[in-house]
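Last lecture ended with a question: if I hand you only a sequence, what can you say about the shape of the protein? Today we answer it with a concrete record. The protein is NAD(P)H:quinone oxidoreductase. Below, first the input exactly as provided, then the predicted structure, then a couple of comments.
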Amino acid sequence: MPTSVNVAVIYYSSTGTISTIAEAVAKDAENAGAQVRLRKAAELAPQAAIDSNPVWAEHARATAGIPEVSPDDMVWADAVIFGTPTRYGNVTAQLKQFLDTLGGLWQAGKLADKVYSGFTASSTAHGGQESTLLALYNTVHHFGGILVPPGYTDPSKFVDGNPYGTSHVSGQGDIPVAEQTLTAARVQAERVVKFTRAIKAGLAAEN
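The predicted structure:
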């Protein structure tokens, strides 16, 4: 019987691009045999800012039923796949705010020895996708986590070209998530589940 794997997909999305990728990653992880929690980071922007952008406001309404992430989701997970749009080449404040609440779990060693990976989106092809994922992965090093990026481990990765994680160029929100991004999401999710299962089984055998 395959080793059970718990995967938390934790993301922030304002206008829906990252949310779409997150849902695809969650479905792909489930299809690979994992138990999955899809969780969003709490919104920090004032309601007036949200309401000023009709797409943002509509997305907030459409995803109101998705639970907000809590530290318990990190404890439950064997693997965590983070999603964030790039903000000046860095992680969004909303996701960073959640990460900053994890000090107690970090001190207790409860974030170590888990698998971590990430995905992102930007307006342009050189809008900070790589630097955003690398900034996110700095946190993984501090956790003592096991980083599992997609790399160039599948022929499709030579098409989308990002070994750091699934990424999408969204323009001004007018370029929808399409097959290339969805393929990248599947490759990444399957790779995370595969290696999480192997690592968990190996650690169990040692004990």
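Comments.
1. The mean pLDDT is 96.
2. The two ends are 18 Å apart (CA to CA).
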